[in-house]
Amino acid sequence: MDNRLIVPGTEVLCIVLHHLSFPTRLDDIIKEFGCEGSEISQIYQWGIAHICALFSNVLYWDKDQLTLEVLWEYADAVRDASAPYVDCFGFMDSTYWH
Fold first, then answer.
1. How do residues 25-44 score in pLDDT, each as one tens digit?
2. Mean of the per-residue pLDDT values of the chain
3. Distance between CA 86 and CA 98 in Å, rounded?
4. Residue spans per domain, the chain
5. What predicted TM-score, i.e. pTM, was given to this entire model?
6. Could you name the domain of life of the organism this protein comes from (predicted)?
7. Cβ neighbours of residue 2 under 8 Å, at least 6 residues apart?
8. CA 36 to centroid of chain Cα atoms
9. Pair 79, 86: CB distance under 8 Å
10. What is the number of other CB atoms lying within 10 angstroms of the CB of residue 44?
11. Could you give the CA distance from residue 90 to residue 98 in angstroms, rounded to a whole number?
């Protein structure tokens, strides 16, 4: 990492997966992993950049398969599973469309 943080690869992966799988605030992740907020952010950003660099050839938006109808189907499935959000589709970069 550029800021001289030394973090095992498994911990980087755990932080990235935790952040992507749970809609939690930074404070919650800090408690879980015992790092400062700035460190968690740097580890997460580095992990995402590393994954994108390694797998950029297979990470792309397939507009033929991910149509608006399919996205609505996914949003409906999330809603039907008693998710806290209605008509919401999340993206890997933690933004969302509502």
1. 777 788 788 888 788 889 99
2. 79
3. 8
4. 9-55, 68-97
5. 0.60
6. Eukaryota
7. 46
8. 19
9. yes
10. 19
11. 9
